[in-house]
Structure formats: structure tokens, C-alpha cells
Specification:
The protein is 79% helix and 0% strand. By secondary structure, it is mostly helical.
């Protein structure tokens, strides 16, 4: 039992070191320029430690961003109170704005967008009154629209309040839905 906890602690430490090292390297290089040899040297772990935890460098980014996006969407999907939802969203976006800028500079925005798309599919999975074909296009349309709005809002300094932005998205969603 103690050995298992120790092994888990070592694994968690390796993941933490690799994540921190990756973000340090991304400040100076694009994702495609970072080699595993360089990453593990920066993290102070072995190549084996990398491969025990990840299949690719992108997996580190997925592991970093997935719980954050999933938590954000869970608040909406499971209809948390507006206070909880907006507080969590504001905290997420405050931290995420700099990460989004880094993702553009270091060419890994596609990882974030893929995770966003997966969560939007969860959100719209059982949208009422749509055929399977309509639902497929509805998800694509809404995913691209909402992601584009969030992206623009974050990159231009979050000038509008989160409440106003959310109200706009709801209005656009309702208008689009009524057009169907």
C-alpha cells in the first residue's frame, strides 16, 4: 500500500515537472520545435518517466486543460447557480486569457479548441427538437460561434462583463434555435 502511494506521488511529481517545463519552453518555442529530449532535461525526469505518463507532448497540454474546461462546462451542463457559475467562469477566464495568448504564439491552440469542441458536444448532446442531422450541424455551428466569441473577448481584453457576454451567447443561441 505504501509503495503504491509512493509510486503515485512519483508519477504526480513527474507530471508536474513535465507540465511546468513544457510551459517554460513554450514561452520561447513553438510546440513543434520542442523535442522530448529537451523537455525531459528541463523537467529533470527520464525519457521513461515521460513515456510512462504520455504518448506525446500534446498529451501534457490535454491533461493540463481538460479538467479546467470540463469543470467549466459541468457548471453549465449541471446547472449550477449563477453565482457559482459566474465566479468559476471569471476565475477560469482570468487565468485562461494568458494561456490562450501563449497557445497562439506557440501554435497549440488546436489542443484547446479540440477540448472545447468535445465539451460543446457534451453540452448539446441531447438538444431537444432536433433531428440527428440537425444536431450534428447545430453542434458545429454553436461550437465555432461560442469559441469565436470567447476567443475574441479574451484576446481583446475582456472589455464586456462576463454576464453581458453570456447573455449575448444565450440570445444568439435562442435566435439560431428559433430559425430552425
Amino acid at each position: 500500500m505504501a509503495a503504491t502511494k509512493h509510486a503515485q506521488a512519483i508519477q504526480q511529481d513527474s507530471q508536474t515537472y513535465l507540465t511546468e517545463a513544457l510551459f517554460q519552453l513554450l514561452e520561447k518555442k513553438t510546440l513543434s520545435e520542442i523535442k522530448i529530449t529537451e523537455l525531459v532535461a528541463r523537467a529533470g525526469v527520464s525519457r521513461m518517466a515521460f513515456y510512462r505518463n504520455y504518448d506525446s507532448v500534446e498529451d501534457i497540454l490535454r491533461q493540463h486543460f481538460a479538467p479546467k474546461l470540463t469543470h467549466l462546462f459541468d457548471n453549465v451542463i449541471f446547472e449550477q447557480s449563477d453565482t457559482v457559475k459566474y465566479d468559476d467562469m471569471q476565475a477560469f477566464f482570468d487565468a485562461f486569457a494568458s494561456e490562450l495568448r501563449l497557445s497562439l504564439k506557440a501554435h497549440f491552440e488546436y489542443v484547446i479548441r479540440d477540448l472545447f469542441t468535445e465539451n460543446m458536444a457534451r453540452y448539446y448532446a441531447n438538444w431537444p427538437n432536433l433531428s440527428p442531422e440537425q444536431l450534428k450541424y447545430w453542434q458545429v455551428f454553436m461550437t465555432n460561434g461560442v469559441y469565436g466569441i470567447w476567443r475574441e473577448w479574451l484576446l481583446t481584453g475582456q472589455k464586456e462583463s462576463l454576464t453581458d457576454l453570456h447573455a449575448l451567447i444565450k440570445k444568439l443561441q435562442a435566435s439560431t434555435e428559433s430559425a430552425l
